[in-house]
């Protein structure tokens, strides 16, 4: 078969099944994802308790979705690097550390935005 032949597109339910299986894999393997999911529940409950506005609640959901999505991409990059090499390599380190930095940056910015949302609701 030629490399240029069109790929068969999966049916939507198959794609969902694969995505859910990827999430379950990451959830079972990644402690960070447990912490992030727990933090997400705490943040949502707290936001409802202090009666943040609907728009602020939507922003909270976007931030949570961003952090969790980036953690999943980080997990994918870690596994891909491990598949390519189990040896110590500066490029493997660079790839993993950069992916981790993406999660770190988004989490930091999310925490700052959430602080403003809380202050706005409480003051
Ligand atoms: N093949 C490698 N070569 C060089 N350094 C590596 C390699 N694999 C991992 N490292 C270094 O060790 C760190 C931890 O890698 P590991 O694969 O254990 O991720 P992890 O501890 O599961 O990370 P996270 O906490 O983000 O899930 C990496 O961020 C990187 O600095």
UniProtKB/TrEMBL annotation:
Keyword set includes Transmembrane helix: yes
Cofactor: Mg(2+)
Membrane topology field: Multi-pass membrane protein
GO cellular component, one term: plasma membrane
Keyword field contains Iron: no
Cofactor note text: Mn(2+), Zn(2+), Cd(2+) and Co(2+) support activity to lesser extents.
Localization, UniProt: Cell membrane
Positions of a divalent metal cation binding: 30, 78
Binding site for ATP: 30, 78, 87-89, 96-97
GO molecular function: ATP binding; kinase activity; metal ion binding
Recorded family membership: Belongs to the bacterial diacylglycerol kinase family.
Name of the featured protein: Diacylglycerol kinase
Species of provenance: Sporolactobacillus laevolacticus DSM 442
Lineage, top ranks: Bacteria, Bacillati, Bacillota, Bacilli, Bacillales
